[in-house]
Design goal:
single chain, 325 residues, mainly beta, seven-stranded antiparallel beta sheet, six-stranded antiparallel beta sheet, 2 helices, 20 strands, 30% strand, disordered C terminus
């Protein structure tokens, strides 16, 4: 089975990955009877539940809420009220825990550095950078870090997905910022709302919730689930993240699925999809950490100047659009 059809990544929040098996099955498609809920954080309480009614009258109605594995967002199947975390469908997303899942199925952390950009995936015709935000913990030698934005390059195009800085978090207010080739992508704030690119066939953005959650697809190239989430007051107390009334540390939880990576792909996550990739991390450690940050540093969110960059080696607009059509 082609590992490039297997979902991967994250996104995280500080930035890392979970365990899985060497070969995973393709991510299942979201069924037609799904609903996405994004519990609010008003007053520190998660206040959103979903009422499921059986339209055929065979089952009693029920109330569904998100599992503690994925408190910020989950998928509910009606009328059973069975809930799933987004990473149950996109195996790269780390549920409630900031880490990457590599293409080889192993977890790893990559801490990066706040206010810096890093090459996550770099291939001949696809390049993805992540911008990190963070907080300094005086008791540690590194920053707490989270992914605030993605800069995606393909052919001559630039796609931006980011979380706006947010003081007091309100899940009913959209804090997601999208732009394509420098122009804002305006998707109505309602579940299922859709935007299609006129310039690139097959490039679409669909709201998976009325606010703060989208699915971004480029046919034949990638499928991305991106959700804006805050650091909760409870998590901040437990981990000493330092959330303040001025900044909820809103960031992205992300899941990637890739369809056409080459065997020369590199980057923090990308290298794990190579057939010759050898995992030198301590997979038995509770927190395996990928080092070598200087090799992945980029000068800005869209730059392809990291030391391991592959972008442009065979890129052409015809290649991307041909796969998308």
């Amino acid at each position: 089975m082609d590992r490039q059809l297997v979902g991967a990544l994250a996104v995280l929040v500080a930035v890392c990955a979970i365990a899985a098996v060497q070969a995973q099955p393709p991510s299942p498609k979201l069924p037609p009877n799904y609903h996405v809920i994004n519990p609010g954080h008003m007053g520190g309480k998660r206040d959103q539940q979903l009422s499921c009614d059986d339209t055929q009258g065979k089952k009693k109605g029920c109330m569904a809420k998100c599992d503690k594995r994925c408190p910020n967002q989950c998928i509910v199947m009606c009328p059973s009220c069975k809930t799933f975390c987004m990473c149950d469908f996109y195996p790269g997303v780390s549920c409630g825990d900031p880490r990457f899942t590599g293409g080889d199925g192993n977890n790893f952390y990559f801490h990066g550095k706040k206010d810096h950009d890093f090459c996550i995936v770099s291939d001949a015709d696809l390049h993805i950078n992540a911008h990190f935000i963070g907080k300094r913990n005086p008791t540690m030698s590194r920053d707490f870090t989270w992914i605030q934005a993605l800069g995606i390059r393909f052919a001559d195009h630039r796609l931006y997905i980011g979380a706006l800085k947010t003081a007091k978090w309100n899940s009913d207010v959209d804090r997601l910022e999208l732009a394509f080739d420098g122009a804002p992508v305006d998707v109505p704030a309602e579940l299922g709302a859709r935007w299609e690119s006129a310039a690139v066939p097959g490039l679409t953005v669909i709201r998976t919730a009325a606010t703060n959650a989208v699915r971004v697809q480029l046919a034949g190239v990638f499928d991305i689930m991106a959700n804006v989430v805050p650091i909760t007051e409870q998590d901040s107390r437990i981990h000493n993240y330092g959330v303040t009334e001025e900044d909820s540390l809103a960031h992205l939880d992300i899941g990637f699925k890739f369809y056409d990576l080459s065997d020369d792909v590199h980057g923090v996550l990308g290298q794990t999809y190579r057939s010759d990739y050898v995992n030198k991390l301590s997979v038995s450690a509770s927190m395996p950490v990928m080092g070598g940050a200087p090799s992945y540093v980029a000068s800005d969110i869209f730059s392809t100047d990291c030391a391991v960059a592959r972008f442009g080696r065979r890129a052409s607009i015809s290649m991307v659009t041909a796969r998308a059509s």
